């Protein structure tokens, strides 16, 4: 006996109707539409935050919470002052210099711990202890040792970020799939090809995660050191206006600094991450 398949004119033996997969609405959303939807949702969340900020400022003193209009006006005034760019660049320079130290030292330590059982047992306790020490301690020690200068800030940033890089690289090396390396050898890959095509792609995600986390720590310790004892940088400006209890300028500098961080994230880090992981298939939800 044969039956007609639901509205298609097709029949099947035994009266069994085949299951026809139905496309879900989420499956019909193209990557471009999904990307634009993400942009609109982020913009909507930002507008909601500004709206809440504006309403709250109506009920609080300007000394406690100035409104968005006053803060944006102060930001515009600051952008017209060349010293603003000097302080922003000074902080960025210190963070970049400290991160170079952190990445160089963290990579070496992480590789040693990941490749050598002796290195792992010899260093793991010290790396974990260094990771748990509050970053402000490194800032205070650096100022006491090196004085009120750029070296103190750079050393504090580097020492704070080294454990984060080392731990991620350590775990990344230990997570390498050795079966892929054996397969590469079976197909007579050269050592450089195995390293470039099989090892590095597996470690890259761990390195990127390490850089993001370490960079977040670096921005924080940079502003702390500048606030404690230096006479330049975003942290210094925050401390200066805090001393005058000028909340408008404190928020203006905070937002300016946040904008710089977002520019670095979306102009430098995101494209770099996309390029380094371009071999990975995109995950569609």
TrEMBL record:
Segments passing through the bilayer: 39-60, 92-114, 126-146, 152-173, 194-215, 221-243, 250-269
Record-annotated ABC transmembrane type-1 domain positions: 88-268
Major localization listed first in the record, in broad terms: membrane
GO cellular component assignments: plasma membrane
Keyword Endoplasmic reticulum among record annotations: no
Location in or out of the cell: Cell membrane
GO biological process: transmembrane transport
PROSITE patterns xrefs: ABC_TM1 (PS50928)
Membrane topology of the entry: Multi-pass membrane protein
Superkingdom, natural source: Bacteria
Pfam families per record: BPD_transp_1
Keyword Cell membrane: yes
UniProt keywords, alphabetically: Cell membrane, Membrane, Transmembrane, Transmembrane helix, Transport
Similarity comment: Belongs to the binding-protein-dependent transport system permease family.
Official protein name in the record: NitT/TauT family transport system permease protein
Species per Swiss-Prot/TrEMBL record: Pseudonocardia hierapolitana
